[in-house]
């Protein structure tokens, strides 16, 4: 009997061991997943865009550019074109009418310019102004006419100033709008004694300064403090629709204002 009791006790111990395994062999209960903490982003102020001064792009041309595909010019984001109408009292540009009509049909704003060829002949400035008006078509909605002044032909600064004043007054009287003066910084500083008279009397400047700089050199004390209106920044530009090099221009503003147009 004691042997039987011993066997029974041993069996009872074995059963207890199987029912309650040692802690080292027991399977640990999986812990529920803990959410990963996320950092709350610090709100940053929305940056306000800075608007850089805008430019309106255009070109100026003469018969030298040959046939022009004005539709492609307009498609290249050119908004305006100045077209040569005349030079001195002897030359009318043979491509003027074709260029003007083509540019207008393509939706560009068009202006006409005269290459001044001043001399000491009596009434030369008046005759050149009338020659320009005879050859140019300047209608309502056209851009302001332009006097291209870059040669003196030996005239001194005082005589050249009088010449320019006469030409500008005659054209303004006929068109109802004050013309723009196209010139170079060097010519104005030298041949025109860097006068600011025209700036002080309401004439705007189209400065020809071929440079990669962000701004041109502007004569007459930054044109009397008014700055440039148009800037011819290259004479060797490449524009779709124009074969060969062409002058590239900018208007100093994001759109063409009403005062630039013939009423």
Architecture blueprint of SSEs:
Blueprint (H helix, E strand, L loop, with lengths): L1 H18 L35 E7 L8 H6 L4 E8 L3 E2 L3 H10 L3 E7 L8 H12 L10 E3 L8 H19 L4 E4 L1 H7 L5 H4 L4 E4 L10 H6 L5 E8 L8 E7 L11
Parallel strand pairs: 1-2, 2-4, 4-5, 5-6, 6-7, 7-8
Antiparallel strand pairs: 1-9, 2-3, 8-9
Helix pairs in contact: 4-5
What do these coordinates show?
The chain has helices at 2-19, 70-75, 96-105, 124-135, 157-175, 185-191, 197-200, 219-224; strands at residues 55-61, 80-87, 91-92, 109-115, 146-148, 180-183, 205-208, 230-237, 246-252. Helix 4 runs parallel beside helix 5 (157-175). The termini are far apart. The chain contains eight helices and nine strands. By secondary structure, it is of the alpha/beta class. The model is unreliable at 1-52 (pLDDT under 50). Strand 1, helix 2 (70-75) and strand 2 form a beta-alpha-beta unit. An eight-stranded mixed beta barrel has the order 1-2-4-5-6-7-8-9, surrounded by four helices. Helices cover 31% and strands 19% of the residues.
Record keyword descriptors for this entry:
single chain, 263 residues, alpha/beta, eight-stranded mixed beta barrel, globular
What's a quick, concise take on this entry?
The protein has 263 residues and is an alpha/beta fold. It has helices at 2-19, 70-75, 96-105, 124-135, 157-175, 185-191, 197-200, 219-224; strands at residues 55-61, 80-87, 91-92, 109-115, 146-148, 180-183, 205-208, 230-237, 246-252.
């Amino acid at each position: 009997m004691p042997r039987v009791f011993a066997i029974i006790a041993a069996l009872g111990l074995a059963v207890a061991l199987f029912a309650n395994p040692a802690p080292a062999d027991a399977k640990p209960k999986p812990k529920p997943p803990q959410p990963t903490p996320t950092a709350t982003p610090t709100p940053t102020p929305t940056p306000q865009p800075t608007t850089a001064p805008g430019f309106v792009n255009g070109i100026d041309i003469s018969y030298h550019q040959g046939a022009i595909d004005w539709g492609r010019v307009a498609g290249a984001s050119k908004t305006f074109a100045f077209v040569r109408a005349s030079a001195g009292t002897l030359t009318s540009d043979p491509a003027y009418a074709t260029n003007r009509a083509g540019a207008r049909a393509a939706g560009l704003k068009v202006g006409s310019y005269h290459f001044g060829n001043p001399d000491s002949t009596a009434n030369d400035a008046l005759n050149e102004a009338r020659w320009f008006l005879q050859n140019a078509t300047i209608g309502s909605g056209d851009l302001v006419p332009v006097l291209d002044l870059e040669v003196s032909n030996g005239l001194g600064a005082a005589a050249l100033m009088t010449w320019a004043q006469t030409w500008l007054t005659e054209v303004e009287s006929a068109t109802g709008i004050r013309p723009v003066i196209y010139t170079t910084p060097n010519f104005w500083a030298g041949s025109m004694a860097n006068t600011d008279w025209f700036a002080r009397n309401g004439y705007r400047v189209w400065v020809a300064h071929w440079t990669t700089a962000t701004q041109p050199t502007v004569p007459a004390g930054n044109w009397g403090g008014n700055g440039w209106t148009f800037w011819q920044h290259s004479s060797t530009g490449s524009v779709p629709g124009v074969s060969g090099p062409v002058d590239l221009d900018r208007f100093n503003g994001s759109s063409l204002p009403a005062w630039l147009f013939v009423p």
